[in-house]
Amino acid sequence: MAATSRWQYLDRIRTVKGPFTDDDFDGSVVPETMDIMKILVIGAGGLGCEILKDLALSGFKDIHVIDMDTIDISNLNRQFLFRKDDVGKSKAECAASFVERRVKGVKITPHNNRIQDFDEDFYMQFAIVVCGLDSIEARRWINATLINMVDEDNPDSLKPLIDGGTEGFKGQSRVIFPTVTSCIECQLDMFAPRAAVPLCTLATIPRQPEHCIEWAHVIAWDKEKPFPKLDKDDPEHITWLYQKSLTRAQEFNIPGVTYSLTQGVVKNIIPAIASTNAIIAASCCNEALKIASSCAPSLGMEENYMMYSGNESIYTYTFKHEKKDDCPVCGTLARPLTVNSKWTLQDLIDHLAERPEAQLKRPSLRAEGKTLYMQSPQSLREQTASNLAKTLKELGLESGWEISVTDAAFVATFRFILRFEA
Ligand SMILES: [Zn+2]
């Protein structure tokens, strides 16, 4: 009795006929379906801890979690499933056993792995995938994998992907029905890489503590070479940068340089705030509950993207992000790419890394059946490296030609139609 009364309020939502349930719904099936339904959580960090707790308390009984990270002492202020004794242990394993202890009847299977360690057969066993990641690259990988898995003759091959993300006081949650609605790659330009501070600002007129730290990191380190190679995990190296930054900040009367800020800027750590994680994780898990039980319409087919901003007061906005026909992952058309014929192939490669909708760091390029540059194997890289200094014109490329770009980090081929600037 105690076991069922624990869920009685949840079951009022899950089993009572409502405006969004099917006509023949009698309320008896949902708990059973949710009891056996497998759901996958990717990431057991700030968002992942919240997601695991929320899913377990929302009636999911068979949860898997993937995370290859180990627990660091700095995680403990917000990753509340971990204790001091857990430092150094696997996040996935500690999170799973904590939630299992607290919520009886829930099974959580941890995987101390990279997502790329698993194949389609593994991902096929889940009904829903929920991501709580801080890496765009990992999101792009799972997005492309789930889209590749869709088989029109097998409705079970379509796995709803729920993605949460936070940065400081801002966050978003979105629901993707692979191949049907706008995907993570369609939405990539919403996540432009952070603009670099111009070198001249660093060198001449710093205005923020971060500028002083970047100055120490980029300019002072190179000039003085206090150690042969910068190791961002070595406290001695970070201390050197911290002291340099502090001296510079004092010169310009800029407050706010601390050791931990220095570490954050140098390691490019995105600030994480416990309550933003809680808000975004909660909204992701409500969508999972709605998809699993049909108790209310979920984000997805129409409105599919909720953005939250707590930077200035509070603001949320939910909208429909449209699928793109020229999305390299879920679309069919090649994307136009404006280039200049005087660019070298290296310029083009740098451009692909910076463009918000491409963000390809290690691309290999082919054009009309001809290899322009290959990152691997090494023999091909050496053979094609001489092309990097040649201009697009010298390489014989013409406006209107299609180039295909692959990057070892992704399972997609990116197709672009060259448009030469007049
Ligand atoms: Zn897409």
TrEMBL record:
Pathway(s): Protein modification; protein neddylation
Keyword terms, alphabetized: ATP-binding, Ligase, Nucleotide-binding, Ubl conjugation pathway
Gene3D superfamilies in alphabetical order: NAD(P)-binding Rossmann-like Domain (3.40.50.720), Ubiquitin activating enzymes (Uba3). Chain: B, domain 2 (1.10.10.520), Ubiquitin-like 2 activating enzyme e1b. Chain: B, domain 3 (3.10.290.20)
Residues of the signal peptide: none
GO biological process per UniProt: protein neddylation
Location of the E2 binding domain: 337-421
Xref: InterPro entries: E2-binding (IPR014929), ThiF/MoeB/HesA (IPR045886), ThiF_NAD_FAD-bd (IPR000594), Ub_act_enz_dom_a_sf (IPR023318), Uba3_N (IPR030468), Ubiquitin-activating_enz (IPR035985)
Transmembrane regions: none
Reaction(s) the record says it catalyses: ATP + [NEDD8 protein] + [E1 NEDD8-activating enzyme]-L-cysteine = AMP + diphosphate + [E1 NEDD8-activating enzyme]-S-[NEDD8 protein]-yl-L-cysteine
GO cellular component: cytoplasm; nucleus; protein-containing complex
Enzyme class of the recorded protein, top EC level: ligase
Cross-referenced PANTHER family: NEDD8-ACTIVATING ENZYME E1 CATALYTIC SUBUNIT, UBIQUITIN-ACTIVATING ENZYME E1
Family affiliation: Belongs to the ubiquitin-activating E1 family. UBA3 subfamily.
Protein name: NEDD8-activating enzyme E1 catalytic subunit
